[in-house]
Amino acid sequence: MKRYYIVPDAHMPSGELNVGHWHGIDLGSHGPAGAGHHVVVLLDDHVEPPDTWVPLPHLYDARTTMGKHAHRGKLTDVGVTDGHTGYDVANALHKIHPMFRP
Fold first, then answer.
1. In the prediction, which pLDDT does 46 show?
2. How far apart are CA 30 and CA 5, in angstroms?
3. Residue 58 DSSP class
4. Position 4 pLDDT exceeds 90
5. CA dihedral 50, 38, 91, 58 (to 10 degrees)
6. Which stretches does DSSP call E strand in the chain?
7. Which of 70, 57, 68, 60 is nearest to 8 (CA)?
8. What are the pLDDT digits (tens) for 64-94?
């Protein structure tokens, strides 16, 4: 199951941090709202991310919207609104990077 996170630049995976198979989108490259952060999708269920990674709403949670999420504004430049659920967020990010498909 894919898991989606907002990750500060300083906490992105490197040689020292092994979080398994992942893909990322630099939010700052899409506009100022997400500057200094990435959105990361983890593809391995057996690896736990660092505590500094903030999980986005789960794909199958149809009730929690980005309007309830602490970092909702960081995704506005990639087309995510307050009304989007986790599934909607994954679909919006998929338009930028194919590995973000839900």
1. 86
2. 17
3. P
4. yes
5. 20
6. 3-8, 22-26, 37-42, 54-55
7. 70
8. 899 888 787 999 999 999 999 999 999 999 9
Cα–Cα distance for residue pair 73/86, rounded to 1 Å: 15
Q: Give me 82's structure tokens.
A: 């307050």
Strands (E), 43-97: 54-55
The identity of residue 1, as a single letter, is M
Question: In this structure, how many other beta carbons lie within 10 angstroms of the beta carbon of residue 41?
Answer: 22
Q: Tokens 């630099």 sit at which residue?
A: 26
Share of the chain above pLDDT 90, in %: 72
Contact 6, 56 (CB under 8 A): yes
Q: Which three-class secondary structure state does DSSP give residue 2?
A: coil
| Cβ atoms 8, 52 nearer than 8 A | yes
Alpha helices in the chain (DSSP H): 86-94
Q: What's the pLDDT at 55?
A: 93
What pLDDT does 18 receive?
81
